[in-house]
Amino acid sequence: MTHISFEFFPTKTIEGAEKLRTTCALLSKYKPEFFSVTFGAGGATQDGTLSTVLEIMATGEQAAPHLSCIGSSKSTLLSLLQQYQQHGINRIVALRGDLPSGMLETGSLRYASELVEFIRQETGDHFLIEVAAYPETHPQAKSPAADIDAFVHKVNCGANSAITQYFYNADAFLYFRDQVQNRISIPLVPGIMPMTNFSQLARFSDACGAEIPRWIRNRLQHFDQDKESIRAFGLEVVSKLCMKLIQEGAPGLHFYTMNNAQPTIAILDAMG
Ligand SMILES: Cc1cc2nc3c(=O)[nH]c(=O)nc-3n(C[C@H](O)[C@H](O)[C@H](O)COP(=O)(O)OP(=O)(O)OC[C@H]3O[C@@H](n4cnc5c(N)ncnc54)[C@H](O)[C@@H]3O)c2cc1C
C-alpha cells in the first residue's frame, strides 16, 4: 500500500484554525502515515507549528513539525527539540529554511545536513527524520551534481526518509532517483502540489525553483478566471502524475495541501 502524508501550515486566525480542523478530519479518512506542519514559513510564529502538531495528535493522528535551522541558535533549536520530545513527538522534517528578507544573521547551523547531525547528536534515535530533496535542483546549488552530493551527505548524516520539492515533470523525479538510488537506502517520496490557482502557483514556483512546464502554464494562463476549467485540468494533470509515480515504484506521496482538503481528496479519489 502506498503511504501518504499531508502538509499543513499553521494558521493565524480563529477561522483558519477552524478550517484546518475540518481539513484534517476530511483527510484523516485517507489514513495518512502522518501530517506535517511547516515552520516559520509565511511569517507564522514558531509556536503555531507546535500547537498545530499537538492539535492533530489529539485527534489520534501522527504529526511531524518541520524545523528549519537558518537564523536560529543551537540553544533555541535544542529547546524546541526537547519540547517536541516532552510532547511525545517522534518525527521531524529537518530543513535549512530560507532567511526572511532583511535578516542577516544565519545562525549556528548553515545547512540541513548540520541540523540532522545536531538532532542525532542531541537526541540519538528518538526522531524519525525527514529531509528535503530537489529533483529539479535546489535554486542556490552550485550545480546539479553538487546538489546531489549535498543531498546524499545530508541523508548520510542520519535521515530516515526524504520528501521532494513538488514538480510536474515525472522524468525529473525518475532521473533524480536513478542518480541517487545507489547512494542512499531511504525512501524518496514525491511531493505533490495540487493545481488550483495559477497566479499563486506561479509565484511559489518562481520562488522555489519548481518548473511549471510550458504546456501546463499556457493552458492555466488561458483559463484565466475560469476556476472550474483550472480545477478540472489541474486534477487531470496531477492525478495522472501521481499514478505514473506510483506505477514507477514511488514509495508514497506527500501532498502540499495548502490547508485545503478538496483538491487533494479529488486527486486521491481520481486515483482510486
Ligand atoms: C518537503 C519540504 C518542506 C519544506 N518545509 C519548509 C518549512 O517548513 N519552512 C521553511 O522555511 N522552508 C521549508 N521548505 C523550503 C526549504 O527550507 C528551502 O528549500 C531551503 O532553501 C532549503 O532547505 P533544505 O533543507 O533543502 O537545505 P539544504 O539541504 O541545506 O540545501 C540548501 C542549499 O545548500 C546547498 N548545500 C547543502 N549542503 C552544502 C554544503 N555542505 N556545501 C555547499 N552547499 C551545500 C544545497 O545544494 C542547496 O543548494 C521545505 C521544502 C521542502 C522540499
Q: Explain this structure to me?
A:
It is a single chain. This protein has 272 residues and is α/β, with parallel strands linked by helices. It has 10 helices and 8 strands. It has helices at residues 14-28, 46-58, 74-86, 112-123, 144-156, 170-180, 198-208, 214-223, 227-247, 262-271, and strands at residues 3-8, 34-37, 63-68, 91-95, 128-133, 161-166, 188-192, 252-256. An 8-stranded parallel beta barrel has the order 1-2-3-4-5-6-7-8, surrounded by 4 helices. The longest helix has 21 residues, at 227-247. Bound molecules: flavin-adenine dinucleotide. Flavin-adenine dinucleotide binds next to strand 3, strand 4, helix 4, helix 5 and strand 6.
Shape, principal axes of CA atoms:
globular
- Ligands present: flavin-adenine dinucleotide
Kindly state the percentage of residues in helix: 40-55%
State the end-to-end distance: 12 Å
Largest sheet: 8 strands, parallel, barrel
Strand order of the largest sheet: 1-2-3-4-5-6-7-8
Total number of β-strand segments?
8
Structural class: alpha/beta
Strand content: 15-25%
Helix-strand pattern: EHEHEHEHEHEHEHHHEH
Low-confidence stretches: none
